[in-house]
Design a protein that fits this description.
It is a single chain. It contains 11 helices and no strands. The protein has 2 domains: 139 residues, no CATH class; 204 residues, no CATH class. It starts with 14 loop residues before the first helix and ends with a helix. The relative contact order is 0.12. The longest helix is centred in the last third of the chain and has 30 residues. It is globular. By secondary structure, it is mostly helical. It comes from Gulbenkiania indica. This is VanZ like family.
Length: 360
């Protein structure tokens, strides 16, 4: 039973609404970044709808345009019943979103409005919506729902926590940022900064190690706080660590220049991770509410430590590590940075909701 006395199976399912909202924000952000240089070219505003195919073709763009709308259509289709109405709603809102994005991109010199993009967007949304209402999905979802109930708390906050944890994994796709880290050393000449310690290098070392320690602690305690049983703690911690490291290695192999494959690994980060594992071990001695409090404190402290970092990278600094030379990397880095800024706030709200929901 839910703490409020309501059966979990009867609880309203608001999760698809939030997944759809997050996906919508990601679509808008990546479509209009960097939100500058707005201008009207003077051409007919709906001209892009009549372009002969393919007016603008890039395989990478087409794949992204398709894939990003799959979860969008999937989530939208689950927000309304009966299922066929959910499917229609997903196609309608996806069409409106895609058209609005392409229409707005006409006013950005670095963007190209394309009817082909709309076609790929709608194909992705239709795929996601069809999967959402298919009998196959219902069987798969039943297994996922069983897995969720077996391992995680019946509290509604656990549902949102799982989505937020997926968002955190997405923030690890930039291999130029240290694992569980928050800083990138800028290139070029040394920057002057004020150090509260006599040894300025020690100050930088402590900030970087402290950031890694607190980020690791916050992430792992965030994951373990929602577990149903303490015997799942070790495997959860191992899963998060292995998956995060795997994502870093894959991203490095795909995006980084060979000389920079392990640029994000350094002694201060490793020391911070070791200290973070010790803190996690201490906090997991407590019950789930204690772990949630620890995660909440670590999330806030990590943001405070990140604010103390005195060096400011130049625009596009992180891109020097990459072997891709076109604008997709700038968009990807901006998206990862956006999600990195979003994650602590979303995690904080989720943890507060969990503490409120499980109060005595």
């Amino acid at each position: 039973m839910h703490p409020s006395g309501t059966s979990l199976s009867l609880r309203p399912a608001h999760l698809p609404h939030y997944v759809a909202l997050i996906t919508f924000v990601v679509i808008v952000f990546t479509s209009f970044y960097p939100f500058t240089g707005w201008a009207y070219s003077g051409r007919p505003l709906l001209e892009f709808l009549t372009y002969a195919w393919p007016y603008y073709f890039r395989l990478f763009d087409n794949i992204v345009n398709y894939l990003v709308y799959v979860p969008y259509g999937f989530a939208l289709a689950l927000t309304l019943k009966p299922r066929w109405m959910g499917w229609l709603l997903a196609l309608l809102l996806s069409t409106l979103t895609s058209f609005s994005v392409e229409f707005g991109q006409q006013f950005l010199p670095e963007r190209v409005a394309s009817n082909l993009d709309i076609a790929y967007n709608l194909a992705g949304a239709a795929t996601g919506a069809t999967l959402a209402i298919s009998p196959l999905f219902r069987r798969v979802w039943h297994r996922v729902w069983q897995w969720r109930h077996r391992y995680f708390s019946p509290a509604a906050a656990a549902d949102y926590g799982l989505v937020i944890l997926v968002v955190w994994f997405l923030t690890q796709l930039n291999p130029a940022v240290p694992l569980f880290g928050v800083v990138i050393y800028p290139g070029g000449l040394p920057q002057p900064y004020v150090s509260p310690l006599e040894n300025p290098l020690l100050f930088l070392w402590l900030i970087e190690a402290g950031g890694a320690m607190l980020n690791l602690t916050a992430t792992l305690l965030f994951a373990t706080a929602f577990l149903r049983d303490r015997r799942y703690i070790a495997r959860t911690i191992l899963t998060v660590l292995v998956l995060a490291f795997f994502l870093k290695i894959v991203a490095a192999g795909m995006l980084l220049k060979p000389i920079a494959f392990f640029e994000w690994i350094n002694p201060s980060v490793m020391a911070g991770l070791a200290a973070g594992l010790f803190l996690v071990w201490l906090f997991t001695r407590f019950a789930s509410r204690g772990q949630a409090v620890g995660a909440l404190a670590a999330v806030g402290a990590a943001q405070g430590v990140a604010a103390l970092w005195p060096l400011a990278p130049e625009a596009g600094e992180a891109l020097r590590y990459f072997r891709w030379s076109y604008g997709h990397l700038e968009n990807m880095s901006a998206l990862v940075e956006f999600l990195s800024r979003l994650w602590p706030w979303a995690a904080t709200l989720c943890l507060i909701f969990f503490l409120w929901e499980t109060r005595d």
